[in-house]
């Protein structure tokens, strides 16, 4: 027979104990999470002294969940264990993410929650910090105390039901937009202003920062949004686009661009010109192929929007023309509703829908990350080839397929050439998007069996740190050599081909003491991007790119020129070169790219590469601001609104 738990004391006392125990446990969870995140109780004290209401509100939020779950389970101590465990897991994930790429946990990252094991698999060995175990012990003690007084926190029958019902309603209210507005006002928390994750976490702490992001309003509609309003937007877009109808930048075919080339886009993992790092002396040029090709290419700084991670997000921005700023806070642009990727035609579809092109993706890893098996087919790719698929192609190859944990870039490029030949033999031109992996983290000293083809020295870094630098050097050297092999093969090909080659982001290379190579070499003051100047962000959130062709005429006289580009500018730049009869949407993006290379939560970069904190603070002309507004209106209409002009935006630019 089940033994009924016996309550101790009058109801009012048990209510007080239940409420007090919940709030105390909530504060304990709040402190424990920040303990793991910051690694210092002293930092928590300083944070509390600076913003006391933020820690208090964090404790209230956690306490509300403890109270509600405790009423549901009938055991406050068990609720405390569960909430404490969830809090510590969040803190640990934030710690690991910061360790991997220097950026804190964001609400958008929860889109990858089901792929956590795969993410960890490409990150290397991850160990909890000592403060995690200390925080765990502290929370265990708090939960143990609640267990000892459990008879003073027992509710039964109608009282328990009413307690749970009321607490559930109040807790849900705390996590709603109206509730957040009211609570934010009481605790002096701004729940209206959108902040990048680093600044938000630094100010509000992990839990409160995630809470803010979940309660911020979704993307607002344009003022006066209606069918008539959007028809006016369409008319203005047509007016602006037809102004450029006579130029090659408009996407209108000319005699010079009448040849339809193959297009190979290469996202080179963590590639950038490391010879520009100060205090590193190289035996010889590790980017000899890249640097030699620059004289034959359009090249320059590539504003990647990321540092140390974000490859999948970068792909969506490049191929679909969107960024996280186009959505409500916390939206993962790789995990939108499936039909969202069908609303606007992608970069690949500018080639495939016009006929004569076949689009394929090749990736040197498996299909586990970033929802690619869903998004790429929706964006017009007829075939996706991952590591195992590429190995089944059966093209001639000698030697190992793998280098440094992942598929060799040179082997992947052989697969690219194989697919280009097969598509050309079928009578089509190829649009190929290749994603390399050989230079992917982790950068453990033994990654390439301690091999490094080029000697490097430093007056600043010690030998243990230099062992990590040599891993980065070897990976980039191999990427450069594979690029040379690819372009040499294309020189011998009779098929006209354009190669777009870029680094997705710099590696966030951590040294033995936890600092990054960039901090050690004086490029930024600390790992915390909150402390960085806009110029430092702009520098470290960029890599290098080039657009090369095996026939210089395909570059329309621009070979050897320098031009800043970015994730959202490179697609329109390519379309202008190939002279595709592109859609209004991509023609508009081309005009926008002339005034905006980067526009994300973290910062804004104008068409000349000048950074600002945001578009609002940038020194932009009225014409530039109008272009940004028109783009926002089109995106809202397609992805949030009634699609009044979406079909028209997917149609070719109307010529006068």
TrEMBL record:
InterPro entries: Alkaline_phosphatase_core_sf, OpgB/LTA_synthase_biosynth, Sulfatase_N. Residues 261-578 form the Sulfatase N-terminal domain. One of its GO terms (cellular component) is plasma membrane. It is found in: Cell membrane. Keywords: Cell membrane, Membrane, Transmembrane, Transmembrane helix. The chain crosses the membrane at residues 12-36, 51-69, 76-96, 132-149, 161-180. CDD domains: LTA_synthase. Pathway: Cell wall biogenesis; lipoteichoic acid biosynthesis. It is a multi-pass membrane protein. Its main location: membrane. PANTHER family: LIPOTEICHOIC ACID SYNTHASE (PTHR47371), PHOSPHOGLYCEROL TRANSFERASE I (PTHR47371:SF3). This is LTA synthase family protein. It comes from Candidatus Oscillibacter excrementigallinarum.
